[in-house]
Amino acid sequence: QCPMQEMKPQTNVLDLLPKLKSMALADRAVFEKGMKAFVSYVQAYAKHECNLIFRIKDLDFASLAKGFALLKMPKMPELRGKCFPDFTPVTVNTDSISFKDKNREKQRQKLLEQQR
Predict the structure, then answer these.
(1) Alpha-carbon span 54 to 42, nearest angstrom
(2) Rounded to whole angstroms, how far apart are CA atoms 46 and 76?
(3) 60, 14, 53: which is closest to 38 by C-alpha?
(4) Confidence (pTM)
(5) Which domain holds residue 47?
(6) Does 40 reside within a domain?
(7) Strand, helix or coil at 112?
(8) Which helix (H) or strand (E) holds 92?
(9) Residue 13's pLDDT is what?
């Protein structure tokens, strides 16, 4: 289940990315969905049958990450060993981002406690 909220169209697109980043910093669900969307996009690109057109080595990962309003680059095989000077991760510890949904946050805290 994915609750939806109507968002008004943005007139200035440059204003949109900072708003998305602040939404990701305020709610772990938004942060995780951005990461999952980025990973899915890159994996779909890498596994596409028409690799003459969809060349993973031509993909601009930094711009793509900015477009998904990522706070940091995910750890995934396709990014291993690559540097992204055009992408600046946030200085915030992303593990400290909590869910706005109190039940999900309670579950997350339980899981973190079990892992310790």
Answers:
(1) 10
(2) 12
(3) 60
(4) 0.79
(5) 16-115
(6) yes
(7) helix
(8) none
(9) 66
The whole-number pLDDT of residue 24 equals 94
| Overall domain count for the chain | 1
Please report whether residue 57 resides in a domain.
Answer: yes
CA triple 42-96-92, angle to 5 deg = 70
d(CA 53, CA 7): 34
Burial zone of 35 (CB within 10 Å; 0-12 exposed, 13-18 middle, 19+ buried)? buried
Domain annotation covers residue 102: yes
Residues 116 and 105: their CA atoms lie apart, in Å, by 17
> Do the domain assignments include residue 5?
no
The percent of residues above 90 in pLDDT, for the chain, comes to: 60
29-76 pLDDT, tens digit each: 999 999 999 999 999 888 887 777 777 888 889 999 998 999 999 999
In 3D, which of 5, 13, 20 has the Cα closest to residue 68?
20
